Amino acid sequence: MKEGYEVIYKRPAALTGKRMHYCPGCFHSTIHKMLMEVVQEMDVQDKTIGICPVGCSVFAYDYLDVDMQQAAHGRAAAVATAVKRMLPDRFVFSYQGDGDLAAIGTAETIHACNRGENFTFIFINNGIYGMTGGQMAPTTLDGQKTTTSPYGRDTSKVGMPLKMCEIVSQFEKVAYVERITCNTPANSRKAKRALKKAFEYQQQGLGTTFIEVASNCPSGWKCTPEESLDWLKDKVFPYYPLGVFKEPGKPAK
Amino acid sequence: MGETKLMKGNEALAEAAIRAGMQGYFGYPITPQSEVIEYLALEEPKHNYVLLQAESEVAAINMVYGAAAAGSRVMTTTSSPGFSLMQEGLSYIACAELPCVTVNVCRGGPGLGTIQPSQGDYFQAVRGGGHGDYQLIVLAPNSVQEMVDHTVLGFELADKYRTPAMLLSDGAIGQMMEKVDLPDPIPYKPDKPWATTGKTPDRERNIITSLYIKSEVMEKVNDRLQAKYQKITDNEVRFEEYHLDDAEVVVMAYGLSSRICKKVVDLARESGIKMGLLRPITLWPFPEKKVAELASLDRVKFFFSVEMSVGQMVQDIRLAAEGKKPIYFYGRKGGIVPTPDEVLEFARKKIEEN
Predict the structure, then answer these.
(1) Does the distance separating the beta carbons of B70 and A82 come in below 8 Å?
(2) Searching chain B, which residue's CA lies closest to the CA of residue A68?
(3) How far apart are CA A51 and CA A92, in angstroms?
(4) pLDDT digits (tens, 9 = 90+) for A86-127
(5) Which value does ipTM take for this structure?
(6) Which CATH number characterizes residue A165's domain?
(7) Which residue from A247, B16, B109, B334 has the highest number of Cβ atoms inside 10 Å of its Cβ?
């Protein structure tokens, strides 16, 4: 360190330092970093086990310096359920995309939430299948164009985009539900607070904690990273409002 | 020294799993094996295993994945349609090299089929069953006693080779009651440094995965798996011989069919036919060397396979015999168990033809 300089920002030690494969502007890297900051601040790196199923973040284990399991598409909630039940004093999180959590894995998601499994869902909802090349997701917005909805999502044919926070907050044994984003520094700070709260509630054994990230996908949305932030603000947040849906000790929204 | 009881096959299997130190069970009810989870649910307060009725067989096998990856001795049981649903998960488990025991108490198919006993899932069991090049160690119990013995053995082999083991049983073995010797509880100390239990400062992080996106790496993973399967093939073949010493006709059968065929051998010998039984206990690895050895003997006229299917194991016998002897097949379908008389009648016809 040069004399007269002070470190005010650095990579958390719980990230491996491997260069990430995520596209420019994608929120995955931001969420990875904040998640590992939380792990470090809570001093639980040696107790944390992450589950990353199929999707862009299937390689999360390259970056997160904690024990990790890669799971089959959609099955992270079942895998995480078993890990937490076998090792109840560990911190367990699943890190899932929208196709994973809200399409192929809906049953596992719903039942883990209904049982109040004491792990943290981190649900990256970018409204598109990023890894497979931009196909329609269960959370693709009405009219949004993707490679499998080239004329825009036709909700008369495929139904409405699923609102997972709104759904899972109905379950009695789900403790904490919040939808966050990282489109501005202020929102990123809120997002990190939410991730930390989720881990704290998990530590207290209060039940399922569910954090949805209203995320972006500049590559899949075929726009610049900057334009993706506008899309979030103009299109995504009006349909997927940010904020707390359920929290211990607070009235349900 | 253990305990002797009169027990149903499915319940004996559950009790054996408890005594083998099973730490986690994840399953979904399906006839004819629901007694396993019911028994474990009743016994749960006396023990400290984790028991969870999953929302589906798909979830159950993925719970097995998670629990095994977390270092636990873990099991699931199901019957044919449920076992089909588990195939994707088993492929992941095999590639991630996770030890576990799975049980298929087979019923008649295809489709929803029947709840009566069948051996129609042989191919699914011994050919991997899911996608990709992998194998399960497949044990085929033919009695309630072997439901116990093979459960214990299944856990041991799974841990020894870091690979999934399975019992291919059937609805009759699962439902019948027999006298059974139960072992004393086996002290089980997991030694799984690869498990994801939390990265302590003294080690690198552990990663359990079946994803190797680079072809060169994926090929090496396959080489490693195949080397392991070869080792299992070299060391773990198990079979039973019954009157093979002077046999001129060799009948092959496993599981429930093998009990019928023992009777067939007795009846045949009473009427002067020199028949012997070769019963594979491990369906994979298959006792192919033993088949080849018998096929090379001048005195052996032919083989025939008796299965409660349209003929699946018979193909493995043909492969092993390499055309040296005729290989015939007799089977019943749809959950019907062949009688000794009809099998003997079939054998007599083949003797006349040869």
Answers:
(1) yes
(2) B207
(3) 8
(4) 999 999 999 999 999 999 999 999 999 999 999 999 999 999
(5) 0.96
(6) 3.40.50.970
(7) B16
